[in-house]
Hints:
It is built from eleven helices and eleven strands. By secondary structure, it is of the alpha/beta class. It has three domains: 84 residues, Arc Repressor Mutant, subunit A, CATH 1.10.10.10; 99 residues, 3-Layer(aba) Sandwich (D-Maltodextrin-Binding Protein, domain 2), CATH 3.40.190; 95 residues, D-Maltodextrin-Binding Protein, domain 2 (3-Layer(aba) Sandwich). The relative contact order is 0.14. Belongs to the LysR transcriptional regulatory family.
Amino acid sequence: xxxxxxxKCFIAAADTGSFSAAGRLLGKHLATVSGNIARLEDELGLxxxxxxxxxxxxxxxxxxxxxxxxxxVDSVERFTLSANQLSAGxxxxxxxxxxxDLGIAAFASVFQACQQQWPHLRMTLLLxxxxxxxxxxxAQQVDxxxxxxxxxxxxxxxxxxVGHCDVNIVCSQRHPLARKxxxxxxxxxxxxxxxxxxxxxxxxxxxxxxxxxAMWFCNGFQxxxxxxxxxxxxxxxxxPRDALPQGxxxxxxxxxxxxxxxxxxxxWQKNQPLSEVHQFIxxxxxxxxxxxxxx
Length: 295
């Protein structure tokens, strides 16, 4: 089997155009690079470089094998990195649940950075109601979760507060409510209220936001947005006033004089030690809130 070190010398020489430059790139002596390439040619039974000119030129065989050599070296490096990270205690897989009213988009950069730093990690991302998230954390089916804060201490999970999300009363810009400078309780009660299942399953939160006798329920942020855009009604939406989805507007309620906010935590199983991956996600989710990605 061809050793990766021989392939690295071949690739470096092809990329730099000379054996001496390849040596400088790899931190090896010229004789070592030249010897490794000659050994590779002997093992393959092929001439990879034409050495007749001032600088070595790839032969047709060298050109043909170059891309395959790159694939092999890259695969070996990924394998070695993954093995080193696993031996250092980095988990092989991780399941992260996000409250469905938030969505994944706000944390895309967090998970992109996570994938780049730990390429071997098998990540499962779930969008679920807060009640379902709590049940899955309790059942040890979720490793980390971003969810609305609960009052009091839980017996089955640990948590860290990470920030808050602005909550605004929102409807379509074509909805009759959008024409009002301010809306009253009676105004809102006259139209259908769209509520997420996540809020519906949280009794205290549901009672706090329930206003209209006509209620529609749906799963997740995107479903709520689509119903609002279709002028089904109005909703308490977890979204910043200056970054609402297209076609939606904020209403100004007479009964609210301060910005409504919903507090969020990252939670995990009780007494579970946090790996560097867990801590990375926790810290960066908190940074996302602090940078007002969500508020």
